[in-house]
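--- STAGE predict ---
source: upstream dedup step, 1 unique chain passed
mode: sequence only
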Amino acid sequence: MTSTSILRHRRDRSATTRSACAGLAALGLLGFGSSSFAADKPPVSPDTVAPFSTDSRISATVEFGLRTLASDIEADIPQRLATIDEQVSCVHRRVLFFRVNANCDIYGYVNRSGPVSLYGRGDRVYGSVPIYGALEGQGANRFTARIHGQTEASATIEAGAHPELTKDWSVDLNFSDGFHWSEPPVMHVLGRDIQLSKYAEPRIHDQLARVRERALAAARRLDLHGKAEAAWQHAFTPVQLSDDPPMWLQLTPQSVAFAGVRASSTVLSGSLQLSGSAATVVGRAPAGVTPTPLPALGHEVSEPGSFDVILPVHVGYDVLKDKIAQAIAMLPPVAALSVRDVDVYPSAGKLVVGLRIAKGADSDPSAGRWVYLTAALQVDADGHAVRLTGLGVITNDEELSPMIDPIVAQLQSNVSADYGVAYQNLLNAANGKLTRPLKDGFRMEGHLDSAKLEKVYLPADGITIALRASGQLKLLYGM
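--- STAGE serialize ---
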């Protein structure tokens, strides 16, 4: 063989070898051991999940039935409001050349003729009580004994009060009161009208002053301090939000502010705002926080703020593995290769998707080579779905590009995990648990009606989506 023939033979053998290797790589027969590309595998590195805690506010509202309060005030109002016994000059007449002045005795009474009625409007409480007066006039000596007159009249005493809570937790009622006669009491004697209101009204005003004192005493007997202290203690008790998964709410109030008085036609209520932290604990019930003493009242607020709590929703990595496998199965086969297995795990804040790719005809269940992708997560809080985004291929293997590129496109556009059912179940469970009876005549009423994304974590066991749920949480006493 000549030297030229030897060179030509070597070139042909080299070309044949390169062509064979390329063909084997395309068919997935080159280097498909399970340990191949192990150095490209990102390490498992889950996130550390921070405590699910946030600043929050709850309302403590003490309600009193106005009918009960009216009965309490009425018990201190006597049936007889005034007794009248006066001597007045009732006759001024000229007889012949003489001017005759005669006195009359005015006597009678003013009684309460009906029950006390209380009703509320806005931040004021209004009350009324009907009264009835009967008065008579009689000449005071034998010359005027035939002089006689009588009258009767009714009136409505009306009072309005603006209840305020002082720093020492006592209730002040800033009264404004008055009354008006339906028909002023007037006695007719010998053609003269004697206005009797000026004899009755001073005694009625004296009695009104006593009524104000008694109403203030009745309001202070409501013991808002004791009830606020009980509400404060109740707020520290852990509340179970969900049975499956077990989830608990631990409130830790730190301050209290007066949030005003509200009144309706039947109820008087005073509200407090308790501010502090709300922590959500997943798993066993927390040990609880030792209640602190009720602090002094802070600055008054117009109304209690909204209640916030973090609700964590869990999406297991197995759910994503199934979604990824289903999406890949929808792709047409490429170069006789197939994805034998899928792995999903966290690594330094990213989601790693591992794909074990093998020759379709290979019957060995462990055959194939792992290829790794990394992805970020996009959470649609309104649509209650989590999607893969920003997928990148760690393994740089041009031979697998015909298969990997369509997979990346498929996963980025068609893989999403819906957590809406889990979120709604958790929200419903929390709303059911937040409304319940408490001790000492208290009850809790809560409702969460909206949620927005707080943060996403990638711990070892799945995706944790922390949602900030907002609504109202009240501790109620009374009606």
